[in-house]
Amino acid sequence: MPTSCTIAMKRINLMYRTCSRSITRSLVIFLLILLAIGLVMTGMLETIASRRYLNSDHLPPRKSRIQPVSDEPPPKTVVLTTTNSAFLDLTENWLYSIQSCGVWPNITVIAEDRAAYEALRKMKFNIHVTLADQLSTADNLLFDTPEYKRFVNKRADYILALLHNGYDVLFSDVDTYWVKNPFPYFEEGYDIFTQADQLPPLPQVLCAGFVFYKATGQTLKFVRTWITRMAIKKQKLPDQVVLNQLIMKCMKNKNGVKVKVLDPNLFVSGQFYFNDDWRSKNPHVQPVMLHNNWVIGHDVKVQRFKKIGMWSIK
Fold first, then answer.
1. What is the CA 13 to chain-centroid distance, rounded?
2. Residue 98 half-sphere exposure, CB side, CA atoms within 13 Å?
3. With 80 as the cut, is the pLDDT of residue 153 above it?
4. Rounded to 5 degrees, what angle do the CA atoms 299, 173, 313 make?
5. Of 22, 60, 155, 214, which is least surrounded by CB within 10 A?
6. CA distance 107 to 97
């Protein structure tokens, strides 16, 4: 017969095993709770980060995921621009040009000063207007000045906020004029589509003022890198310079984001289209979009548009 000591030892072993299993279960449950809290907090932080520059209350409404016809923008696409009081007339002209294309996508306009915000809200266009968190000048912006760089370097943050919410983004400067619907030219197989500002034999320069960003993992990674590079540069460079550096690196290494350079005869730079000699040599060019760039100053841009009959404001 087992001694009282043997029986006591068996009871102690049984209690130890039972206690160990209970502690193990409690530890597992505790770790799972910590993991769940961590995942929730990560999602909250990402959401807060994406709303830092663009409040989600102002995002365009989500539409159904039904496949669109080829000439319509995808249902989760936003046309995005930024403007200020000095460029309100160019903004209105840009909106009229889109209206004339026979397509009206979701359009979000970010006002960089309060007067522009109030004026945009009174315009009779179906657009989403939001006020920038960090306001900029309401005055005329001259290319490559410190204020200009501060203004344009915020654009990548706005783009990232929309991409993070699952929207494809067509960023368009307000000094562009849409002649035709551009969306059929953004075919599958690429992450980013951009306009060429300068062509060979000169060094190719890509334009940050007309770019279509698809909400892919590669695009999100690219835009985050773009923002980081602009922030760490000792010398404040315009967003376009950093954008070109990153895209050229991707194209050279043939990895990362897939970039499509749009046909320069369809998406025409101001360097060419407003050149009488170029137009005389290219009489059959029918642009989809033309960019009133390669000139400095608001008034010069307005006169250029008026000269070629692309000024819609009476």
1. 64
2. 25
3. no
4. 50
5. 22
6. 13
In one-letter notation, the amino acid at residue 223 is V
Separation of alpha carbons 244 and 226, rounded Å: 10
Q: How far apart are CA 125 and CA 145, in angstroms?
A: 32
Rounded to whole angstroms, how far apart are CA atoms 224 and 91?
A: 28
**Integer Cα distance of 305 and 295 in angstroms:** 12
144-158, 198-212, 251-265: which has the minimum mean pLDDT? 144-158
Q: How far is it, in rounded angstroms, from Cα 291 to Cα 314?
A: 21
Count of C-beta atoms within a 10 Å radius of residue 184: 14
User: The tokens of 42 are what?
Assistant: 């990560």
Whole-prediction pTM: 0.75
Residue among 262, 259, 267 at smallest CA distance from 190: 259
Stronger pLDDT, 275 or 147, i.e. the higher one: 275
pLDDT at residue 24 greater than cutoff 60: no
Beta strands (DSSP E) in 168-284 are: 168-172, 176-178, 192-198, 205-213, 259-261, 267-268
Cis preceding linkage at 74, omega within 30: no
Give residue 57's pLDDT: 39
